[in-house]
Amino acid sequence: MRVDSLPVYFGFPFPHWFKGYSRDAFLRDLIAGITVAAVYVPQAMAYALLAGMPPITGLYTAFIATVVASLFGSSRFLGTGPVAMTCLLSASVLFSLQLEPQSEQWIGYMGLLALMVGFVRLVVGVFKLGFVVDLISNSVVIGFTAAGAMVIALSQFKHMLGYKVVNSTHIFTVLADIVKKIELLNPYTVAIGIGAYILIWGSKRVSPYLPGALIAVGITSVITYVLKLYERGVAIVGEVPQGLPDPTLPPIDFQTMSQMWGGALVVAFFGLIEAVAIAKTLAIRTGDRWDPNQELIGQGLANIAVSFFKGFPAGGSFSRSSLNFALGAKSPLASILTGSLVGVTLFLLAPAFYYLPKATLAAVVLSAVINLIRPQDILRLYRINRLDGIVAGLTFVSVFFMDLWVAITLGVVLSLGSFVYRTMYPRIVVLSRDPESKTFVNAEKRELPECPQILYIRPNMSIYFGNAQYVYDYILEKVQERLQKGPLKYVLVDMEAVNYTDATGSETVIRLIRSLRELGVEASFANISCDVYPLLENAGFDEVVNHEIVFNSKGQSIVELFRRIDHDYCREGCPYIIFEECLTVKDGKFKVEKSA
After folding, report:
1. Domain limits of the chain?
2. Cα 293 to the chain's mean position, in Å?
């Protein structure tokens, strides 16, 4: 059997790349690969510092993750490798272990974190569980991204200012330490950092395809070497080993792993959101077919691979993927060429980075994240939906006081909690017929009279363990109110908006039928969906309900229930005309026998 006849997750997806592949397509991939690599090399080294890793490990991660993810992924545009937010979250996880950045122990456990993140993403992809990323709401992402970008910016000030700052992702802690030690500022370092930032910013103004970061790296390295600024306190990258380190298994320490799993899950799922969102957006724009689960497999294998080579967790990059898209990459070969060029740099040009100032790498990071500090997006969310805005705001604020992975976990809990809270008190509408439109509308809102003998009520949400008791209590309360005013005979429950009931919800419906019967009122049902009925049936619905008053439509239910009510009361005691049938009874033209 041919490899490409199997589902792609049992083999390599790349045999499909070259169907109809042309010389022009290869040229476009080559141009995209070279252009992205020019941006990627300094960016990867800069993001390594953000993760608390030696700069060279950024090239290890960029080389291996880009190639492996491209081989096993499905998007022709998605660029996998070091990503600012993923690096920051990863550093946050290790800060909680009280480890020293760039130490051997830090490097080893960062590899272990990459292994754990890769395993989670691989499992999610293989078992097609990608839907779980939807549990992290957009409000959480917006709040975290805005605050996270501030943390990233502050974390680079120690390289831009030229003195050591406390290792923390707590904004106030870092800011206080920066101010406290401001007299240690190195003017040469500041000048290099600002100059590099201006070069990067100016290059973007000239052309988005101009590799400003690479230009800044080259110019500031030459200036540092010629003026011997490294003798005046300007921190440089220093000795950079060529090639890849020998593959080694990360330290498997189960006690430490148990402390890291919470953070590893956050890093894994936050990275999944980025990767899936980028690949999906670009695929929609071009009409490409792509497989999100295959993409997650590629992401998982990429992280597992880098864990053996002193790497750190990698993810999907929006900037590099967008550049691939803008340059018209025709296949994932473009990313493989990018990764290969990073590998060439790693094996042949690594010593050239000896005099590269760390302030320049900090400027690369700052230029990438400065536009992500957008608290105005939180205000926009608040205007759309107050609860979402509050969740985004609380996530944003929590970053100031706690570890990043804890802050985003809190945001997810708040987001899910707010959703559950809203569903615990569903809107339940008492319906009556509008005399003008002849349709059934909210009787209480429109202040319309209701039939004294038929309470027509509609829950506007599925019934589950979180709201079942509320629905039960609400309907019983309405029934007891109506019994005090008149001879209520039937409660008609319109199930049109109830798309699901769990075991608790189903049993509560059964309990409601029995409780109403004890009050002398029969429960009638309309519009029970084919998905809900079997669930009710499993709970014993058929044993307690009167099947003669279970209907497929509201029209049918009103006609039949009206035949069963006390028409003498309609003529003599009811002052309202609710249904069309009321006129016929009140006129004495509609004679029916009362049901037994």
Report:
1. 17-369+376-395, 428-586
2. 15
- Pick the more confident residue, 203 or 403: 203
Q: Which tokens belong to 321?
A: 């993927």
d(CA 266, CA 264): 5
Q: What is the pLDDT of residue 12?
A: 64
Considering the four listed CATH numbers 3.40.50.150, 3.30.750.24, 1.10.443.10, 3.40.50.300, the one that applies to the domain covering 428-586 is 3.30.750.24
Q: How many Cα atoms within 13 Å fall on the side-chain side of residue 124? A: 26
Sign for the pseudo-dihedral over CA of 134, 137, 142, 143: negative
Residue 547 per-residue DSSP state: G
Give tens-digit pLDDT for 380-389.
Answer: 989 998 888 9
DSSP assignment of 326-394? HTT--STHHHHHHHHHHHHIIIIIGGGGTT-BHHHHHHHHHHHHGGG--THHHHHHHHH-HHHHHHHHH
- Report whether 83 contacts 271 (CB < 8 A): yes
| Nearest-angstrom CA–CA distance, 377 and 239 | 43
Between the CA of residue 450 and those of 160, 476, 586, what are the distances in Å?
A: 72, 17, 16
DSSP state of 163: S
Residue entry with tokens 């498997």: 252
Average pLDDT over residues 551-574: 89
Please list the residues that pair with 526 across neighbouring strands: 494, 551
E strand residue ranges, 35-112:
79-81
pLDDT-derived band of residue 9, with 50, 70 and 90 as boundaries?
Answer: very low
Backbone angles phi, psi at 146, to 5 degrees: -60, -45
Angle at 145 between CA 90 and CA 151, to 5 degrees: 60
3-state secondary structure 272-308: HHHHHHHHHHHHHHHCCCCCHHHHHHHHHHHHHHHHC
| Threshold 0.90, pTM exceeds | no
How far is it, in rounded angstroms, from Cα 401 to Cα 171? 7
